[in-house]
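Work Package 4 report. The design task specified in the project plan requires that, given a folded chain encoded as structure tokens, an amino acid be chosen for each position. We show below one input record used in the internal validation round.
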């Protein structure tokens, strides 16, 4: 286990360089996350014979991705960044990848911000194209849960969102401290496990929107569990006592919202 525990001491987060630009494994993993989400969603559309035109879904992908990127970045600035007011008064800096003229990339993304951006973009697309929001969301969440795995692996490669100190034999050293590989816990709990569940029940759903809302509930539960092993964001720490993190708080609200919507949507479907 020694090699595994010391993986960060030998692993280079930079995959290769394009001139002066360093291409990180983090970026590659996020590209794979997007591609896998699209491929998986399209495969299930074809395999399950879901009645949606390919050009409509292709157009939706662009809307959703733009919403996710904008929401993730803005969400981080609003919920996690300590320089919120600076970005709000200098909005052109939000997506500026250069620091003092040197390319540094864009860091700081929020999952819950991405969800909000996704919902807004999806709503606008569905309203414009007269498509059911829940119908599209049911398709999207299967792909999202698959792609999510690569996103968390990217966090692991980038040595960020580290776990709490531990003495378990599969822990990894971050500096001189042995920590939980919490990013990989999240990849399994919030990605693989949810993907398997959604795939298993997709043909047994009883109303449109069931998969999307179930995803929200399952993700929230998985995230709260994973937060137990994840070090709180250094700029925030615990937001209450020595146990409640921002991720737990946001996931709790998200879970409650999805449960309420699940009950309402199911009842409406039963009546109609």
């Amino acid at each position: 286990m020694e090699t595994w525990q010391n993986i960060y001491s030998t692993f280079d987060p930079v995959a290769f360089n394009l001139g002066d630009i360093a291409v990180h494994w983090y970026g590659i993993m996020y590209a794979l996350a997007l591609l896998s989400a699209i491929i998986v969603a399209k495969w299930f559309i074809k395999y399950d014979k879901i009645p949606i035109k390919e050009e409509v879904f292709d157009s939706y992908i662009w809307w959703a991705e733009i919403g996710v990127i904008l929401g993730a970045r803005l969400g981080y600035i609003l919920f996690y960044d300590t320089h919120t007011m600076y970005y709000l008064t200098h909005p052109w800096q939000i997506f500026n990848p250069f620091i003092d003229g040197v390319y540094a990339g864009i860091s700081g993304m929020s999952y819950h911000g991405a969800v909000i951006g996704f919902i807004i973009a999806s709503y606008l697309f569905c309203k414009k194209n007269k498509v059911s929001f829940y119908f599209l969301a049911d398709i999207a969440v299967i792909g999202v849960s698959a792609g999510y795995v690569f996103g968390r692996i990217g966090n692991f490669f980038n040595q960020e969102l580290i776990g709490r100190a531990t003495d378990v034999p599969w822990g990894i050293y971050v500096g001189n401290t042995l920590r939980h590989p919490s990013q990989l816990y999240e990849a399994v709990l919030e990605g693989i496990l949810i993907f398997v569940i959604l795939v298993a029940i997709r043909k047994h759903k009883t109303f449109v929107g069931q998969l999307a809302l179930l995803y929200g509930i399952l993700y929230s539960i998985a995230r709260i569990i994973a937060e137990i092993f994840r070090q709180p964001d250094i700029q925030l720490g615990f937001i209450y006592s020595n146990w409640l993190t921002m991720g737990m708080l946001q996931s709790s609200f998200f879970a409650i919202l999805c449960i309420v919507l699940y009950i309402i949507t199911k009842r409406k479907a039963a009546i109609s």
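The chain has one domain: 2-52+131-271. Validation will be extended to a larger panel in the next phase.
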